[in-house]
Amino acid sequence: MTRVYQVMQEAIQKGLKDKKSSSFGMASDNAKLSFKLLEKNQKTLLSPLAIKAMAYAIATGEHNCKMGRIVAFPTAGGSGVIPGSIIATQEEWELSEKKAINALFTATGIGLIIAKQSTFSAAKAGCQAEVGAATAMAAAALTEMRGGTPQQAINAAALALKNKLGLVCDPLGGLVAVPCIKRNGLGAVHALGASDLSIAGVKSFVPFDEVVQAMNNIGDLMSEKLKETALGGLATTKTGLKIREKMKLPKIKKR
Ligand code: SF4
């Protein structure tokens, strides 16, 4: 897990520095732009921690899109949420590296519950199973890392996942770029919020196991057009179709 942590750190640092655009321009330097909100000391609505978490998550997503090395934790598409939120919190709260690494074990534990009862596959259950699962794992890990109880940690996971239920997978041109990268950035902020709520004593009415089962059920009910096929949602907007054209993908028949 120490190695996993190191690769996460490297991906964030490289992602923040890299200014070049990916093919089709869907990943550029948005991590850098987000991070500048801190450097310039601008007035922001989010706390510096949340901004850093968002920038770090976007950095990982951009690095992934530009074929850099990331940790698929739990998947490549959802790889920004966990390092973004955990490493930003570790830095801002001046916590030890060991605490962050332990938090990754907590995230893994939540991931195992999801893997056993449902899936991480967007082709089976949409983005709720990728970025959604990542936010649940991150929320629990953050809660453990800040000294919360196991009950508060799993409750944070339930709060996080409940609010990602139904999230479809609709990447433009089928590439893990748009909306994936920014979904990771905002997913990291979402995880911070779920952890704060749980620490405040807000309880999820539906327990985590049941939320995971609901995710599975929603995945079964979801149209295949919204499961990684790039045949619906954002992928078939005017902009999405232009990307398809540029990529010389077959035209989609409208129904
Ligand atoms: S939209 Fe699809 S490809 Fe992109 S992160 Fe979500 S699940 Fe992965």
Explain how this protein is built.
With 255 residues, the chain is an all-alpha fold. It has one domain (2-246): 2-methylcitrate dehydratase PrpD, CATH 1.10.4100. Helix content is 60%, strand content 0%. The chain is built from eleven helices and no strands. Helix 5 (97-117) packs across helix 7 (131-145). The longest helix has 21 residues, at 97-117. The protein is globular, with a radius of gyration of 17 Å. It starts with a helix and ends in a 9-residue tail after the last helix. Bound molecules: iron/sulfur cluster. Iron/sulfur cluster binds next to helix 9. Iron/sulfur cluster is lined by residues 77-78, 122, 127, 130-131, 169-171, 176, 179-180, 183, 228.
Number of domains: 1
The pLDDT mean sits at 96
- Kindly name the structural category: mainly alpha
Distance between the termini: 48 Å
Unreliable sequence segments? none
From the alpha-carbon coordinates, what is the Rg to the nearest angstrom?
17 Å
**Number of helical stretches of at least 4 residues:** 11
Q: How is the topology of this model organized?
A:
Layout: H1 2-17, H2 30-39, H3 48-65, H4 81-92, H5 97-117, H6 122-125, H7 131-145, H8 150-162, H9 180-200, H10 208-221, H11 238-246
This protein binds iron/sulfur cluster.
The site of iron/sulfur cluster has 14 residues, from helix 9.
